[in-house]
Every structure is written in structure tokens, then in C-alpha cells.
Amino acid sequence: MSDAVRKRPGQRRSRDTVDVLMEAAAQMFTREGLATTTNRIAERAGVSIGTLYQYFPNKHAMLQELAVRHLLAGGEQLGQVLIRLRETEPPFEETMRAIIDVIVDLHSDRPALHALMHRVATRLPGELAALRAFEDHLVEEIGYHLHRCGRGGDDAALTARTLVHVVDAQVHRVPTRHPITAEQVTMLVQQLTSGIGPADGRNSS
């Protein structure tokens, strides 16, 4: 059975119904993990199971949709910060803290749900491609600031990708019940980059 969304809502009333289902799904996945069922989600949403099945074939499709919504919201918020950082070009520590603040804030609510989405939901080719494109863009931006601040070493792109994967591991894999803080992630990033200086002798910012 396909895990793709069965029908996209067109009218306002349908969109509202799907939003209610998504919130119910988020709550039930947070409470019960993959053990939850479509019946439990429909009950929580206050709709019939038939209404749920109009839009989603199974609970995995609902988890996929939650992941897509999370990725879109995160891309929009982080994109605004990345544009501002390009314009203002603050020191590297301040740059990374601004990025980390957004990422941690996006995952501070319902950490168990985010861990579940990261582990299970991003399996469809289209969503994997979107996630990789998001990561590649973030790597490019961090690489730019590493190079600008003389903190990238011999390979700023590799350093940037390492930082992205470290931050991703912290927000998705390490916390289970309690969300990780921006201070914890920032300290880890500082430890990883403290010994990395400019490859061409420039002073770091």
C-alpha cells in the first residue's frame, strides 16, 4: 500500500479538516509512537475513520505529511535567517548561534515526534530529495561563513557538512524525552571548530 497522501484538500473546510487530523496525529505519535493507529488518531481528531481515509491511506502517510510540513516550515524560517546573515556578516560564533537557535527552536516542541519523523518518515524519493536539497543549501551557507571568517581549514565545504550532520544528530537522535538546548549544540560546534583556523593565513572573525 502506498504511503502517499490520498487526496489534497481544495476547499477551506477540507483544509481545516486535514489540519485537525494533522494536529491529532502529532499528538498521538508523540504519546504512543508508531504503536498508535488511524482509529486512535481519528478519535482524537473527533472525526470518523472514513473521513481520515479520504485523505490518508494509513498512519505512515500521516507521518510523512507531518515531516513535509515540518521541512517546509523550517526551510522558510531558516531561509530568512540565512538571508540576514549574508547581509550582516557577523562573527562566526554569532552566525552559528543564529542558525542553531532556529534549528533547536524548530525541534523544541515534541522532540519524540521529531525523532520519529526523522527515523521513519523521510523515505519517499521526493521527500528524500527535498531533505537533501535543504541540507545542501545549509552546508553551502555555513561553508560561506566558515570561509568568510577564516574558520574552514583546508576544506570549508567538508567542515560545513560535518557541522550540519553533527547538529542534525543532536536535534534528531540524542534527545528523546527532553529537548536539547541551543547552548548545548553551540558548545559542541565551538569544540569542533575551535582548532580550525584559516587555510590561507587570514585572521578569523
Please summarize what this structure is.
The chain has 205 residues and is mainly α. It has nine helices and no strands.
Describe the structure.
This protein is mostly helical. It has 2 domains: 48 residues, Arc Repressor Mutant, subunit A, CATH 1.10.10.60; 128 residues, Tetracycline Repressor, domain 2. 71% of the residues lie in helices and 0% in strands. It has 9 helices and no strands. Helix 4 packs across helix 6 and helix 5 runs antiparallel to helix 9. The longest helix has 30 residues. It starts with 11 loop residues before the first helix and ends in a 12-residue tail after the last helix. The C terminus is likely disordered.
What is the residue-averaged pLDDT? Answer: 82
Determine Rg (CA atoms, Å): 20 Å
Which sheet architecture does the biggest sheet show? none
% residues in beta strands: under 5%
Low-confidence stretches: 199-205
Quaternary structure: single chain
Name given to the CATH architecture of the largest domain: Orthogonal Bundle
The dominant shape is elongated
- Work out the count of structural domains: 2
CATH homologous superfamily (4th level) name of the largest domain:
Tetracycline Repressor, domain 2
Helix content: over 70%
Give the termini distance in whole angstroms: 53 Å
Task: Work out the helix count.
Answer: 9
CATH class placement of the largest domain? Mainly Alpha
Structural class: mainly alpha
Number of beta-strand segments: 0
